Each structure stands twice: as C-alpha cells, then as structure tokens.
Amino acid sequence: MVLEKIDQLAREWLEEAGNRIFMALEQVNIEVEAKADRNDLVTNMDRATERYFAEKIATHFPEHRLLGEEGYGEEITSLEGVVWVLDPIDGTVNFVEQKRNFAISLGIYQEGIGELGYIYDVVGGEFYFAKRGEGAFVNDEPIPMLAKENKLENALVIINTAAMHKFPQTLAAIKAARGLRLYGAATLEYMAVATGRADAYISANLSPWDIGAGKIIAEEVGAIVTRVDGSEMVITEKGDSFVASPGVHAELLRDYFR
Amino acid sequence: MVLEKIDQLAREWLEEAGNRIFMALEQVNIEVEAKADRNDLVTNMDRATERYFAEKIATHFPEHRLLGEEGYGEEITSLEGVVWVLDPIDGTVNFVEQKRNFAISLGIYQEGIGELGYIYDVVGGEFYFAKRGEGAFVNDEPIPMLAKENKLENALVIINTAAMHKFPQTLAAIKAARGLRLYGAATLEYMAVATGRADAYISANLSPWDIGAGKIIAEEVGAIVTRVDGSEMVITEKGDSFVASPGVHAELLRDYFR
Questions:
Q1: Which residues of B fall below an 8 Å CB-CB distance to A?
Q2: Please, which pLDDT band fits residue A32 given cuts at 50, 70 and 90?
Q3: Distance CA B120, CA B115 (A)
Q4: What pLDDT digit, counting tens, does each position of A123-153 carry?
Q5: Closest CA to B152 of B242, B244, B248
Q6: Residue B36: what pLDDT?
C-alpha cells in the first residue's frame, strides 16, 4: 500500500529533519549572537528542511508533488494525485525569538483528500499524527474525541490580532469566552484545539502549508474546520481559518459570524 | 545561614508539592470526567499545596510568615521578618483546561527584600530559581543577562485582555511590536521575559503571590519591573505590573505610558 510506505518514510524524514533543526538550535545557542545572524540561520533551516524533503520525495516518489512554503515544490492549484503539503518551520518568529513553540507540518493529500497528517513540535517533543478514519495520536497515545457540547463561556479561545482587526466581532467573542491565548504558531494552535487545550482558533490569513496537516488531525478528533463565515475551507487557497470543537463552533457561528 | 537552610527545604518541598500535583493530574486523566469535578479537584489541589507549605513552614520556621493565595497564611501588609510568598498553582484555568502551563511560585522576602525566588513549571519540567546577587537559573543552567538595547519593533509582547482595556494605549504598542503572545499564567509570562522569549509583559491586576517570585528572578537577569506608569511596584499591594527588558521598558514608557 502506497500510504503505508509514505507513512513509514515520512516519519523517518520528519525525525531526521527534527534532529537537524535541534542541532541547529544548539549552534544558535553556542555561536550566533546577533539577531541578523539568527534570522539568516532560520531562513537557511527553513530552506534546508524543505529541500531535504523535496529531494527525498523526488527520489522515492517521483510522481508525487510538493506544496511547500519555501518554493522547492511546484505552483499547485489542484490536488490531483498525491501532494505533500509541507511547512518546514511553522512559527518562524518563535523559532528565532524563543527557540521553541514551532513545528514541522506535513499533510499528505491524495486526489484532494487528506490522508495523513503530521505536526512535529521539535523542542516540545510532541509528535502529532492522524490517519484519516483511524484517529489521531500524540507520541503514539490516542487523542480523545472532542466533547461535542462545550460552551463559549467555559472555553479558551485563540484569536490572533490580524483576525481581531479583520473580524471585529471577535472582540465580543473574546469577552464572552473564559480566556484568550496566543502561541504564535498556527499548527500548534490547531493542535491546542485538537487536544482540548483550547476550544477555538481563528486566524485571518493562513496558507496551505499552515493548515494542510492541522486540518486532517483536528477533523479526526471531531473538530469543525471552516472559513470564519462557516463555508468550506479549501486548503489550496489562502484565507481565514476557523477551527473549533463542535459546540463552540456552532455557538460562535450563530452568535458572532452570521 | 538561614537562607541556605530555607533554600534547601524550599527545594525539597517544591519537588514534593510538584509530585503531588503531577499525580493529581494523572487522576484527572483517569477518573474525573465532568468539568465540575475537575474544578473541585483543582481547588482542592490549590488548598492542599498551600496547607502543605503552611505546615512545613510552621514546623521548621515558626517565626516566619506565609503570604499565600488560599489564605492559610496571615493578613500581611508589611514584609518585616521573613515572609514566604506563595502561589500554590498559578494559572488555575490552564491547570483545569490544559493540564499544563501552570506553575508553583514561591518568593522568600527578608525585611522586604526579595532573597530567593522559585517558579516551578511542573508539567513543562522547568524549575526557575534566583538568589539575589547570584544570578538566575533554569534547571540549574544559568539564564543569560537580558540584552539592554532591544527595540519594540523586534519584540514579542505579552499583554492580557484586561490590560488592553485598562490601558488602551497598549493597543498601539501591540501594533508596533513584532507579535503578541498570551500564555495565561503570570509567573510563566514573567519567565518568558526573564529568558528572552518575550521582551515585555503587562498585566492589569496581579496579586503579591503572582509576582513575589517572578520579580526576584526577572530582576536578577536585568529585567525592569514597575507599575505601568513606571512607578515602583510594591509587591504587598495588588495592582498592575509591567516587566520588560531594559530597552523595551524604556521605549514603552516613553512612547506609550507617559
């Protein structure tokens, strides 16, 4: 089965890429002082990681395509065949400033359907995975299905500042919620919702590689993923993103976004 | 030396208290389903942890006083003698909702001067410590002194929603900054500044136990700790809090808060 082979190799490559990033961070700690140097190193790591995947994919699956942030893949507007959707380092500012709270994100789409999703929080040591129809996992432990009936008043929400500006009604939603959190990495904010650490995450502008894996993993535990207006989120198109547990998604849509 | 004895015992008790909280979280995972039960368990853990410290302190240092969130200590308005300033679980909502991103916070004040500070991120496995004049540490590794000349435009800032409402000029500051982060636990937000993961943290309303340890640790690496208007923060009084690296503190004060 090609998906099994993909899964096996994707895990190997993610582990290797994570190790390389981890070692690069050690270098930053030891050698690189100036902010400009740190920024360069990050850009280099971003590119090197994507190039690593591009070469591996071309070697092992020459018929597959890569949709990646750094442009080593192709211009892709359709999801025919098998497409690897990769963000080599999601949360670049965190990578530079915090040396944590970033992730490698990889989603595998086959004829437009998300089959496998991986988000690897390298420094946090959390490896999120889902296979369509077979559940989601963190470090091989099953992630429980999300509660269906949560309410906004009990919910932590993640709404970034761009979304506050683009959708002013989010301000009232934040007031009605239990609290606001912001972590600065879309993939990990998706995983906060998938693991129940937050009930909703709204972002103003995400790209395919930001959401390719997160959507697969979040939906596998019952999260609802749409645009802010409730319409379908087509992952090849940039735009706003709204992921939440079912009850909070319905409540936010009904009371704030319609 | 009494401070050495205090340090030795404080570490023992923090470790034991952390272990108990960790085991309680396992119980939550296993047994407790309903939110109401989870809330009860948290309240119980808060109280049990503070009571544990109250009893230990009374036994070993009967002349010391305890200033704690749960009221097992005394009504304290002055810092004469030795005062243990304790928050048994800072970040209670995170404790309930996320089972991470909370901390035990302990500051030791002698005649009003902060001598020892401890913040224990139990689930994250990070133990922050400072002794006045001898530097700050995380898991026994020295925390570097903060850069003096950072600028707001390159800075991540942590400004909670209550502070956004109380100080509307923070909104312009957030726009000028590189990004906004929110973690939901004052002690860990202090430590984000102390370790350079953010350059400023502004909160509208903190209590002595929220800041007792954080102030000691942050100041030891060169962070500036004041009220939002730049005046001295007396830790026995509730109120707003503004901790930042030196350059960003000066810039925010000059351009936004004066």
A1: 35, 93, 97-100, 154, 156, 160-161, 174-175, 178-184, 192, 196-198
A2: low
A3: 17
A4: 999 999 999 999 999 999 999 999 989 999 9
A5: B248
A6: 65
Sketch the domain layout of chain A as residue ranges.
Answer: 2-142, 152-255
Cβ contact B59:B84 at 8 Å = no
pLDDT score of B39 = 66
Tokens of B73: 């200590």
Question: Using a CB-CB distance cutoff of 8 angstroms, which residues of chain A are in contact with residue B180?
Answer: 160-161, 182
Q: How far apart are CA A226 and CA B91, in angstroms?
A: 31
Is position A57 annotated in a ligand binding site? no
Nearest CB among B35, B100, B181 relative to A184 is that of B181
Please state the CATH superfamily assignment of the domain spanning residues A2-142 in this structure: Fructose-1,6-Bisphosphatase, subunit A, domain 1 (3.30.540.10)
Q: Is B210 annotated as a binding residue?
A: yes
CATH domain A152-255 topology:
D-Maltodextrin-Binding Protein; domain 2 (3.40.190)
Q: Would the pLDDT of B86 be above 60? A: yes
Question: Are A2-142 and A152-255 in the same CATH fold?
Answer: no
Residue of chain B whose alpha carbon sits nearest to that of A151: B35
- Alpha carbon distance A156, B61 (integer Å): 41
Q: What is the pLDDT of residue B31?
A: 56
